[in-house]
Amino acid sequence: MKNYIKLFAVSSLFVLGACSQDFLDTEPSTTKVEENFYKTPNDAYQGLIAVYDILQREAYGGPLLVSEQASDDCFGGYGTADAVVDLEWDRFLYVSNKDMNADVWKNSYLGIYRANILLENLNKVNWGSDTALKTRYEAEVRFLRAHFHFQAAKMFGDIVPLDHTITSSEFQLPRQAAEITYALIANDLKFAADNLNNDNYSQTGNANYGRITKWAAEAYLARTFLFYTDYYKKADLAGVITKAQATTYINDVVSNSGHGLVADFANLWLAASFEKFAGEDNTEMVWAVRFNGSGKGDWNLNEGNRFQVDIAPRGGAIGKYASGWGGATVNPKLYNAYETGDTRRDATIINYSGEGLNFDQQARDQRQYTGYSWKKYCPITNAAGTSIVEVNGGNFQIDNYQDYAVIRFSDVLLMAAELNLGTNAALAQADLDKVRDRAFKSTTHRVPVSKAVIMNERRLELALEGQRYFDLIRQGVDVAKAAIDNNDAGSDFAVTFRTETLGWFPLPQSQIVLSNGTISQNPGW
Question: pLDDT value at position 338?
Answer without folding.
Answer: 98
